[in-house]
């Protein structure tokens, strides 16, 4: 019989360079690589698709192509990666550079012309292969803080071009100084029926009366930064036999939301930190993890759940490592005891089935596969026209539908939307569609819901009638303040002298940046701006600007 533990140990410790030796990228910045985020790090509803490289707390550093290739895609968005470049390389990989402040001048001019010709503010552009060839080390952009970035940095990825799956960039030889071991910050056991759980420490002995799963809160730090980043691999064994592994080397965007099955979502809601499950839920297709069926006289492991024979004692051991091979380990013991009868009579929803529930004026449809496990799902009328659906403590993989029927006093009204409050009370606005008296909303969250109306149009105001210099750019921009108190800014457009001009929406600073085309002459001009919120309230403003 093959020594599975030895094989898995080699898998966790050997660098993954042989298959990728034909591609050796250079650094995308000319400063030492210090990371604020690692590959496949546990994030909200997704695994991190690359590495986040610190840019010394500022925007505007030059970004360089890491290898020969050509620019295959250019993305501009107020959200997500913000301004991003995709460079395809002949070795079969694509490098991605996100949150950019601006593109190199030749690229920027082409991008502005393309969007203006298409009367679009943002989106994706796909240059022909021969339009922007690049060499290793060639300047392509400036680093920044655009999109969903919460501080200046460069988001960098390497993808398998064929599958579009992100790969761990550190496996291609990029150097990040790291001699620090991962931190083991919390341990918990969870009963298989999810009716009980508890904290424990390394060296403890757990009494096991029913199958248990283990949850581990672990992070890693590199030498030059104190960011609590993600780890590279986890291996768990019982009496020397491996029953669980996690290897953060490749992710798939189509399954990334299953991170909500990979982490203990209940603990995330209660403590705000992400514990990794060393066991599988029913609805979890992730290939990042693997479990192994083990049967021995003293114990059994199935899908990571551990059962111990009565009065037997077994030793569990867990190793956590970072990419550089720094390892932290802990052990504990489990002693089997007689099972105690359970007296529970709770209603649970089967994750494999469709469910249609009724709560006051709301018809709730939860499709099969939306839940990660068969689980309790509370639906309660809270009073004051508030309705609890899942309490914000149940994660959903796919959308549930809420059909909300307006009563006779509400039907004449307009601008209806939902407030969705999570388990901490944080509110988000959800807009939907209407047919007669029925409003239809879709959400992949759960929480407490209340109907409200947005009857106020967005507020728009010109900051200055003359343009500002655009950072790292040959263009100028006219800036306007924009805000909406409920459903948020949904759409926007601008025209100068009745000709379309592009807008960058900086939602973090509630600002519209109107890009001034180079061919508009100096002098006074008419600027017309239209801003629409989530339910259709519209502001139309006109200003005289001087260029």
Low-confidence stretches: 5-19
> Which fold name fills CATH's third level, the topology of the largest domain?
Glucose Permease (Domain IIA)
What does the overall shape look like?
Answer: flat
Task: Report the CATH superfamily of the largest domain.
Answer: Glucose Permease (Domain IIA)
What's the CATH architecture of the largest domain? Distorted Sandwich
Sheet with most strands: 9 strands, antiparallel
Strand content: 35-45%
Assembly classification: single chain
Distance between the termini: 78 Å
**Got a strand count?**
48
Overall helicity: under 10%
In short, what is this structure?
The protein folds into four domains: 4-172, Glucose Permease (Domain IIA) (Distorted Sandwich), CATH 2.70.70.10; 183-336, no CATH class; 348-453, Chondroitinase Ac, Chain A, domain 3, CATH 2.60.220; 459-546, Immunoglobulins (Immunoglobulin-like), CATH 2.60.40. Helices cover 6% and strands 44% of the residues.
Explain what you see:
This protein has 547 residues and is mostly beta strands. It folds into four domains: 4-172, Distorted Sandwich (Glucose Permease (Domain IIA)), CATH 2.70.70.10; 183-336, no CATH class; 348-453, Chondroitinase Ac, Chain A, domain 3; 459-546, Immunoglobulins (Immunoglobulin-like), CATH 2.60.40.10. Helices cover 6% and strands 44% of the residues. The protein contains four helices and 48 strands. The strands form eleven sheets. Strands 1, 4, 6, 7, 8, 10, 11, 13 and 14 form a nine-stranded antiparallel β-sheet that branches. It has a six-stranded mixed β-sheet with strand order 17-27-26-19-20-22, with helices on one face. The longest helix has 13 residues, at 105-117. The chain is flat. The chain starts with a helix and ends with a strand. The model is unreliable at 5-19 (pLDDT under 50).
């Amino acid at each position: 019989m093959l020594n599975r533990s030895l094989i898995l140990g080699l898998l966790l410790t050997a660098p993954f360079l042989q298959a990728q030796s034909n591609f050796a990228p250079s650094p995308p910045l000319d400063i030492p690589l210090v990371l604020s985020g690692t590959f496949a790090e546990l994030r909200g509803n997704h695994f991190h698709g690359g590495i986040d490289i610190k840019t010394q707390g500022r925007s505007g550093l030059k970004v360089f192509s890491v290898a020969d290739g050509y620019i295959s895609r250019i993305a501009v968005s107020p959200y997500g990666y913000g301004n991003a470049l995709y460079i395809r390389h002949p070795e079969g990989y694509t490098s991605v550079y996100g949150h950019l402040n601006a593109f190199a001048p030749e690229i920027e001019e082409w991008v502005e012309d393309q969007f203006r010709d298409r009367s679009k503010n943002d989106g994706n552009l796909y240059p022909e292969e021969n339009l922007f060839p690049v060499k290793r080390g060639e300047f392509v952009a400036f680093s920044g803080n655009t999109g969903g970035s919460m501080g200046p940095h460069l988001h960098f990825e390497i993808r398998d071009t064929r599958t579009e799956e992100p790969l761990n960039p550190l496996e291609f030889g990029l150097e990040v100084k790291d001699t620090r071991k991962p931190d083991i910050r919390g341990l918990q056991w969870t009963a298989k029926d999810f009716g009980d759980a508890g904290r424990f420490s390394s060296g403890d002995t757990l009494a096991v009366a029913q199958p248990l799963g283990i949850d581990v809160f672990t992070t890693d730090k590199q030498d030059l930064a104190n960011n609590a980043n993600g780890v590279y691999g986890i291996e768990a064994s019982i009496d020397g036999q491996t029953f669980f592994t996690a290897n953060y080397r490749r992710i798939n965007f189509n399954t990334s939301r299953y991170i909500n099955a990979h982490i203990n979502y209940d603990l995330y809601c209660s403590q705000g930190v992400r514990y990794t499950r060393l066991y599988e839920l029913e609805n979890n297709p992730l290939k990042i993890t693997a479990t192994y069926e083990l049967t021995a006289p003293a114990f059994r492991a199935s899908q990571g759940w551990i059962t111990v024979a009565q009065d037997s004692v077994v030793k569990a051991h867990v190793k956590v490592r970072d990419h550089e091979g720094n390892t932290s380990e802990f052990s504990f013991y489990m002693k089997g005891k007689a099972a105690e009868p359970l007296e529970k009579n709770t209603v649970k929803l089967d994750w494999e089935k469709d469910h249609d529930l009724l709560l006051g004026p709301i018809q709730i449809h939860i499709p099969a596969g939306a839940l990660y496990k068969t689980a309790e799902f509370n639906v309660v009328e809270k009073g004051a026209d508030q309705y609890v659906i899942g309490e914000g403590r149940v994660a959903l993989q796919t959308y549930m539908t809420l059909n909300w029927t307006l009563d006779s006093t509400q039907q004449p009204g307009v601008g209806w939307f939902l407030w969705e409050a999570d388990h901490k009370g944080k509110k988000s606005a959800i807009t939907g569609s209407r047919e007669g008296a029925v409003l239809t909303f879709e959400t992949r969250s759960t929480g407490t819901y209340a109907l409200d109306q947005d009857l106020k149009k967005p507020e728009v105001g010109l900051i200055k009638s003359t343009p500002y210099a655009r950072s790292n750019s040959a263009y100028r921009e006219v800036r306007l303040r924009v805000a909406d108190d409920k459903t948020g800014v949904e759409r926007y457009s601008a025209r100068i002298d009745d000709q379309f001009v592009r807008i960058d929406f900086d939602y973090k600073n509630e600002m519209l940046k109107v890009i001034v085309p180079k061919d508009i002459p100096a002098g006074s001009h008419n600027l017309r701006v239209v801003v629409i919120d989530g339910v259709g309230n519209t502001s139309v403003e006109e200003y005289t600007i001087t260029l």
